[in-house]
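Progress against Task 2.4 (sequence-to-structure conversion) is shown through the following example record, which the project officer requested during the mid-term review.
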Amino acid sequence: MTTINKTIKVYTKQLQFLESKKLWRAFCGGIGSGKSFIGALDMIRRMKPGRLYLVTAPTYPMLSDASFRSFIDIARNLEVVLPHDVKISPPPSIKLRNGAEVLFRSTDNPETLRGPNLSGWWMDEASLSKREAFDILIGRLRGGNEMGWGTATFTPKGKTHWTYKVFGRGSEDTELIHARTEENIFLPPEFVVNVRKHYTKQQVKQELGGLFIDSGGNYYFPDSWPRYIDAGDAYRIRNGDRWRHIRKAECCRLIALDWAMGKPKKDAPTIALGELGGDCTAFTVADMTDDSDGLLFLLNSINERIPLASNAPRLAELCRRWSPVIVAGDDDNLSETMLLETRRYKDIPTIKPMGIRSRNKVTRSQAAIVRAERGMIFLPEDSTLPWVDMVCNQLASFTGVDGEPDDVADSVSILGRLADEFRPGEDQYENDPILGADGYDGGTW
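Structure tokens generated for the chain above:
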């Protein structure tokens, strides 16, 4: 047998993670700190011959784009896997030369994780998975009649999140390695500087500093947003010690939609419009100033359980009341059937699809999050309006985790991207660096 020696460069924090002997270990870092890379390398190093292991991510797209890709790239680089031992079709799996096998699964439905006896698992982007998934996984660690181990890699989501309670407080069997984005010197030198420009102060601490902050996991703080007074033909807002009047005639009326697409009947080969039930639909109405600021004044928001077949007539009713110039929705929410249905109503303008390009909810919300911190999104002074409380409550609890109520947050996200798109002379968020680069540097393992 020929022995092949391979050297892989890692930086100090990654080396600390690799050398940790704790039963439960976590690598908690900012974006681009090499979390997926070190999680994959760590698992490959620890896989015993003939044993079964598991890698998870919050969704299958995230699993495919990061965790699986990192694992297979490292395994091929180390020459520990043969091409015919890689199963790419879902659900994916990989068998190493030593006979160890690793399964790749999503945590979107934690109950599906029950079953296999494992010798170890790695939860990638653990802070976007539910605590239930972790609780189920710790009960699977009995492969080979030995106590297995568990590791997690993630960007923190605050001190109220389960990842902080499990890994952040420290215990006899637990160790957390913390890394800042800037510690990964293999990133492009301009990466941190460019990303920082589009982040709020809180996000810089959490997303780049990798810190557990008191408000971590939350992105909107609507209680601190500026307020406007409806003065009939104008909006009155504070401008220092003075009042500024913005004429409504100089604004562009927008409606952002996030409607419930419902779930098809089981095994139905075709789906008729009336066959689908509805989840919660959100419509948010806003005026946007026609200047370089692109201020947004929220005028109304609806979050209702509406049957799919009633979405278009409900939108038409809203358009008759508010006369929007632009109606927009994320393109994954705009089926051809629904677009054709809306064209039957003369009150609904042609709906503008906003491309999401597989970006997660937090990334898509970035434009609105930054605008909100800069005081560019306004709520009405009249806090007795019932929709204001509803909007504030949902935005304040938005974390970007799948499965949580986020219909209104999605619609506000669309408004933020619309404002960026139509605001003259500004760079677009689509030109941002790719958030989530992995890297490794420094010392060797």
